[in-house]
């Protein structure tokens, strides 16, 4: 795989092919925007053990992700290396690094139904016989059955075409086995064209005994079936209408008379509230035909991709970019029915006054994807914030990683705080929502849930609030937990508290703002000036509650730093870079440390070699390394840390090197996409703006990789970014920037200024420049 990736990278560096399928707008000059950017998306990108994405059909932010399953108990249940399909299930999470979801699986077969075991009815296929596009997936099995899938927000649409002479045509529906642990499931055959039921599950990352959600479905077929039956585990009973899960499976088979046609269609409504809700969703969103559903899904995605369209670059650049933008807009997912009823974290059904969202992978998305959604869909971002407030109101605490109607407590730190503050500082929250969320965040920042069986909250608060750092404890029974990952969680808390201080100030809470601002620099409490590594002195360490060093202080060893090392986490003080760099010996010393981290000499001579040979390469190789890890969230902001050393041009160089790790094939994502977090990082990097300080609502400007970027926020003004001559395959640097206000001498734009900028004109140079050297964004609390 590495050899293939290097070969592709070499081709990328020399490729100057014009982007495909474009037409010029009236009066448009220079490179053209694609007429239909959906043709440049390949949903197979990341369909392997690194990216863990899925290739199936989904609407933007939809409840349904209808996709093929090639294996169970593995990531998104689809692995590009496999050659057989077990069926098509209706729920998936994009890019999660462990098994979950994969509920309600349909599978077309022919002949007599003799087994409920998917290993026995699985069908062989070839990727050459797959068709993938946003909102559509099609495959022809080696046995001649053609399966086509599309989706609305709350329904999955199926069309199966059976080969002539195949005998009985069947659709198998599995409601008791998912991609991971399922705890209960019921199914019922209703009349002669409908099947309904539910599945209860909610495990995450190999857990057992966690029932976080119940998902219901109502499926109607466009033809009456001639025979039917159900199964429990391996016992099949013809003509029986109901079944309940035994130790493993529960399902039904529906047989159609081949003499009455070779095509069978199904519309499947899904709900987290009830079968009635699933039926309501199906009836409300039922398209008049499969082709109408496919067309509507295509149009929805075309609109989404045109919200941030690009022109120029190679075909590979555009395919990689638009595929990343597509993956960025799959989640969070609608969790409410068409009547806005949803199941809360108290396991009760409520009715919201706006669409309710769920699936919040906040540790991942607060660093990149949250900002992209807020930029392109401020209305949806506001509804997502209201959804988080409802989680607090229903369940008593804020989520860290919410799966359906339950909290997983996965990952560490305090990601919900910068996620919310970002929306507040963009002006997207009404006063009632903002004040309700602030109260929840203040509680979260200072207290701990009495019963941590559902919400763990910030379990490091007892020592953190008292001392300014989390005292290390390896608590039994918890894989995740802030006291167990005390080193990195302390840094995450400090970032969150600093961001929250700005919200407190804006809402008129000066005392609380001062308390939180005093925690901005809590990363200094972990700094140990006696630790030396790679020729540099001073690194963060993990401490016990009494202030002594916990464990091995070697900054190349992971220890109590979550999915990383002190070398990688030392940059997580971007809320106050001046203080952070003072610990390192000043800006010049910090720049030298960054140069070592990225292998800057190689970046400037052979960017692809630096990325593939000097940086962390494997999706899960974040332990025991001192180099930049572009594959995991804690390092996402690190390239932009040059902004505060007086060498912002080096950020542009690092991003050109990082670009080579993303390719337009199934192996083209270097790390787990984590509900669009990694894809959003690439989108911003290629566009030339990125928020390096979560919660700040400010964007650092770097060299764009396209000659034109056009941003069209929902209900907002068009924003243009023009960079004549931009080329991702060459090292390029910003030499000047102009906005509607004239020459931009600072290296950043506020969110408000970006929205009002009209056209941002970026002039590029082939050699390093002094642009933005002495005008970096201020510390977060200083705003």
What does this structure look like?
With 783 residues, the chain is of the alpha+beta class. It is built from 21 helices and 37 strands. Helix 5 (315-328) crosses helix 20 and helix 10 (431-446) runs antiparallel to helix 12. The protein is globular. The model is unreliable at 1-27 (pLDDT under 50).
What would the keywords be for this entry?
783 residues, alpha+beta, Beta-galactosidase, Chain A, domain 5, nine-stranded antiparallel β-sheet, eight-stranded antiparallel β-sheet, 21 helices, disordered N terminus
CATH architecture of the domain at 40-301: Distorted Sandwich
Provide the structure class: alpha+beta
Q: What's the CATH topology name of the domain at 40-301?
A: Beta-galactosidase, Chain A, domain 5
Helix content: 25-40%
Q: Tell me, what is the CATH class of the domain at 40-301?
A: Mainly Beta
Strand content: 15-25%
Counting H and I runs of at least 4 residues, what is the number of helices? Answer: 21
What oligomeric assembly is this protein in?
Answer: single chain
Q: List the strand order in the largest sheet.
A: 7-8-9-10-19-14-13-12-17
Query: Would you count the extended β strands for me?
Result: 37
**Spans of 5+ residues with little confidence (pLDDT < 50)?**
1-27
Q: Whole-Å distance between the termini?
A: 46 Å
The average pLDDT is 94
Output the radius of gyration: 26 Å
């Amino acid at each position: 795989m590495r050899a293939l990736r290097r070969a592709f990278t070499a081709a990328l560096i020399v490729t100057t092919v014009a982007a495909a399928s474009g037409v010029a707008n009236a009066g448009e000059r220079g490179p053209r925007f694609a007429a239909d950017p959906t043709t440049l998306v390949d949903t197979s990108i990341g369909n392997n053990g690194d990216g863990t994405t899925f290739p199936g059909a989904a609407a933007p932010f939809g409840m349904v992700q209808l996709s093929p399953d090639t294996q169970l108990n593995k990531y998104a249940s689809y692995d590009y290396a496999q050659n057989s399909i077990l069926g098509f299930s209706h729920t998936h999470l994009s890019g999660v690094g462990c098994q979950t979801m994969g509920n309600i699986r349909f599978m077309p077969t022919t002949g007599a139904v003799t087994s409920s075991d998917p290993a026995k009815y699985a069908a062989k296929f070839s990727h050459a016989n797959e068709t993938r596009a946003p909102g559509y997936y099609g495959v022809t099995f080696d046995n001649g059955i053609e399966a086509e899938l599309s989706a609305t927000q709350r329904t999955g649409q199926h069309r199966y075409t059976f080969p002539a002479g195949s005998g009985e045509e069947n659709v198998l529906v599995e409601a008791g086995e998912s991609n991971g642990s399922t705890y209960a499931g019921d199914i019922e055959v209703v009349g002669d064209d409908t099947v309904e039921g539910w599945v209860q599950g909610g495990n995450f990352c190999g857990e057992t005994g966690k029932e976080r959600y119940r998902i219901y479905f109502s499926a109607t077929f466009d033809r009456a079936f001639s025979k039917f039956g159900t199964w429990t585990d391996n016992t099949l009973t013809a003509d029986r209408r109901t079944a309940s899960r035994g130790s493993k499976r529960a399902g039904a088979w529906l047989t159609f008379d081949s003499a009455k046609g070779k095509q069978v269609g199904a519309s499947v409504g899904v709900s987290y509230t009830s079968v009635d809700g699933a039926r309501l969703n199906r009836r409300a969103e039922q398209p008049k035909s499969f082709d109408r559903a496919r067309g509507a899904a295509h149009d929805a995605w075309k609109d989404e991709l045109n919200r941030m369209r690009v022109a120029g670059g190679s075909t590979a650049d555009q395919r990689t970019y638009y595929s990343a933008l597509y993956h960025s807009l799959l989640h969070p997912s609608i969790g409410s029915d068409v009547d806005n009823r949803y199941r809360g974290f108290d396991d009760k059904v409520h009715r919201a006054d706006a669409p309710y969202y769920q699936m919040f992978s906040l540790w991942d998305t607060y660093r990149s994807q949250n900002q992209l959604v807020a930029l392109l869909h401020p209305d949806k971002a506001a509804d997502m914030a209201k959804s988080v407030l409802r989680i607090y109101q229903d369940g008593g605490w804020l989520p860290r990683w919410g799966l359906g109607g339950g909290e997983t407590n996965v990952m560490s730190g305090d990601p919900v705080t910068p996620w919310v503050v970002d929306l507040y500082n963009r002006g997207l929250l009404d006063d009632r929502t903002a004040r309700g969320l602030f109260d929840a965040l203040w509680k979260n920042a200072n207290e701990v849930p009495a019963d941590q069986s559902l919400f763990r909250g910030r379990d490091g608060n007892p020592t953190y609030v008292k001392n300014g750092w989390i005292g290390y404890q390896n608590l039994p029974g918890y894989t995740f937990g802030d006291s167990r990952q005390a080193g990195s969680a302390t840094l995450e808390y400090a970032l969150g508290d600093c961001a929250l201080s700005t919200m407190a100030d804006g809402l008129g809470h000066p005392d609380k703002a001062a308390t939180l601002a005093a925690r901005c620099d809590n990363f200094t409490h972990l700094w140990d000036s006696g630790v030396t590594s790679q020729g540099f002195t001073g690194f963060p360490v993990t401490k016990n509650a009494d202030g002594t060093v916990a464990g091995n202080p070697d900054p190349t060893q992971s220890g109590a730093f979550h999915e990383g090392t002190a070398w990688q986490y030392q940059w997580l003080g971007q809320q106050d870079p001046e203080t952070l760099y003072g610990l390192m010996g000043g800006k010049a010393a910090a720049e030298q440390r960054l140069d070592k981290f990225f292998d800057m000499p190689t970046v400037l001579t052979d960017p692809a070699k630096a990325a593939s040979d000097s940086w962390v390469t494997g999706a899960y190789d974040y332990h025991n390394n001192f180099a930049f890890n572009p594959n995991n969230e804690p390092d996402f902001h690190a390239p932009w840390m040059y902004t505060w050393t007086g060498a912002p041009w080096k950020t542009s160089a690092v991003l050109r090197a990082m670009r080579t790790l993303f390719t337009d094939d199934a192996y083209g994502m270097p790390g787990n996409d984590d509900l669009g977090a990694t894809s959003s990082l690439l989108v911003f990097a290629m566009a030339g703006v990125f928020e390096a300080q979560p919660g700040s609502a400010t964007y650092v400007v770097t060299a764009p990789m396209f000659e034109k970027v056009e941003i069209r926020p929902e209900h907002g003004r068009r924003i243009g970014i023009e960079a004549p001559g931009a080329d991702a395959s060459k090292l390029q640097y910003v030499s000047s920037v102009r906005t509607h206000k004239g020459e931009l001498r600072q290296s950043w734009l506020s969110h408000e200024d970006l929205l009002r900028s009209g056209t941002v004109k970026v002039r590029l140079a082939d050699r390093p420049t002094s642009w933005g050297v002495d005008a970096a964004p201020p510390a977060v609390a200083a705003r």
